Amino acid sequence: MAQAPTLPQAPALLSNIHISTHPCVRAKLSQIRSKDANARETQSLVHEIALLVACDALASGLQAVSTGTGETPLGYEYTTETTYPKIALVPILRSGLGMVDALQSLLPSPAAVHHLGLFREPTTLQPVEYYNNLPYHHPSGSSADATSLLYPDIAILLDPIIATGGTSVAAIQTLLEWGVKKVIVIAILASQGGLSRAITEGGREGEVEIWVGGCDQEVDGRGMIRPGMGDIGDRLFLTIGK
Hints:
- The protein is α/β, with parallel strands linked by helices.
- It has six helices and 13 strands.
């Protein structure tokens, strides 16, 4: 049997890692771990956990700004507001797709959705990119112009599982090279070592934050979180055993 990969130590004191303590999140994690949860139940639980975790993540990462005034049905004037700065949602294929609707339902207006396709090579557990539809963007640190202002300041990276952390690191680095100022990762479940690796290797201080529903201690020899919740992509799309 293969040995479990060696991962960095637990990120317990890092201020840019946020592990939910919400009782409802903990209860729903218990439900989604079960082998008896079918694809429909799994999808609902991914949506609900993502919604709860994203509430905290967006409250921290965004701010409300005034956009003018409006009028209520009774004729009273009020100040209209929206969120700032501009964001884009970036789900990692396949499983990140299950989190998109939860994020869109929280936002006051639809956000652009771009996709990154990454898979782990089974032997080395290293990430391999097979799809990238990020539009043109100025490289990070270059001067802004009218074109760059159309693109987001923050990328919200959606990936239900952070196991070894390799996929997260590759995706975070791709997004920072694309030109966003910050990456906010929203996940359902992670390992301690995977969180630490994603934060320490993903970007410089202040460039990355991770918000996750729960955290397990270790991964097994296949790079799967233990006890975890299995391959969430296979569970969502009924491809277990493919």
